[in-house]
Amino acid sequence: MRTVGRLHLITDTRPGRDAVAVAAAALQAGFDTVQVRPEDAVTDREAYELTVRILELCRRHGAACLVNDRLHVAVAAGADGGHVGADDLPVAAARRVLGPDAILGATARNAVQARRAVADGATYLGVGPAFATTTKTGLPDAIGPAGVQAVVEAVDVPVVAIGGVTAARAAELFAVGVHAVAVVGAVSTAVDPGAAAAAFFTVVPR
Ligand SMILES: Cc1ncc(COP(=O)(O)OP(=O)(O)O)c(N)n1
Ligand SMILES: Cc1ncsc1CCOP(=O)(O)O
Ligand SMILES: [Mg+2]
């Protein structure tokens, strides 16, 4: 199984966004994982074609490619794994779909959810929202670095913090022990996504 990366770009497929160009810039700047996260309006065919393009970029950079929610697309495209949350396949079922060697991320907000996801086969935990975000609507209140730290201290698998993550805030999150951060808006909405991504590379603990 490929190891879990430290800097995860999550694709922004909202209208007007160029997910492939942003992924290329982030990979060039040092991001080591791209999670393809198709909006609900994106068809499976579109999600598959996007994943194939992103996977080719990831392979060129030695990076991991994951697919959010739609694990059949991950398997069909030959991606490195997927990510599931409360509205997706249960973690144990997702593990059966992906097989024992794939990377499987699961969303958790607290220690109880985290331990359950690990017991059911999660490779890493996506924990947040760490800070308030407008990228995804309907989220519960942000849990802050302290809430993320509570999960870090509850499990022995990598924690990937998500939600309102900027380069400055990433330093706070690494300081409480996260393995990685996942980013959408701070890179995808930047005037220069490559420069925005490069700012994260400087805060990853070596
Ligand atoms: C790294 C990471 N953490 C959390 C999420 C959220 O996934 P999920 O709960 O399935 O919500 P949607 O992304 O499907 O809206 C994630 N995608 N990645
Ligand atoms: C998919 C998801 N899950 C929790 S927050 C979030 C979106 C994160 O986007 P941003 O990095 O722009 O806050
Ligand atoms: Mg989901």
How are the secondary structure elements laid out?
Layout: E1 7-10, H1 19-29, E2 33-36, H2 44-61, E3 64-68, H3 71-77, E4 81-84, H4 91-98, E5 103-108, H5 111-119, E6 124-127, H6 144-152, E7 159-162, H7 167-175, E8 180-183, H8 185-188, H9 193-201
Parallel strand pairs: 1-2, 1-8, 2-3, 3-4, 4-5, 5-6, 6-7, 7-8
Helix pairs in contact: 1-2, 1-9, 2-3
What does this structure look like?
The chain has 206 residues and is α/β, with parallel strands linked by helices. The chain has a single domain (7-201), classed as Alpha-Beta Barrel (TIM Barrel), CATH 3.20.20. It is built from nine helices and eight strands. The protein has helices at residues 19-29, 44-61, 71-77, 91-98, 111-119, 144-152, 167-175, 185-188, 193-201; strands at residues 7-10, 33-36, 64-68, 81-84, 103-108, 124-127, 159-162, 180-183. It has an eight-stranded parallel β-barrel with strand order 1-2-3-4-5-6-7-8, surrounded by seven helices. α1 packs parallel to α2. The longest helix is centred in the N-terminal third of the chain and has 18 residues, at 44-61. The structure holds the ligand Cc1ncc(COP(=O)(O)OP(=O)(O)O)c(N)n1, 4-methyl-5-hydroxyethylthiazole phosphate and magnesium ion. Residues 68-69, 85, 87-88 line the site of magnesium ion (MG). 4-methyl-5-hydroxyethylthiazole phosphate binds next to α8.
Count of DSSP E strands? 8
Overall 3D shape: globular
Structural class per helix/strand content? Answer: alpha/beta
CATH superfamily: Aldolase class I
Helix proportion of residues, in percent? 40-55%
Q: What count of structural domains?
A: 1
Adjacency order of strands in the biggest sheet: 1-2-3-4-5-6-7-8
Q: Unreliable stretches, pLDDT < 50, 5 or more residues?
A: none
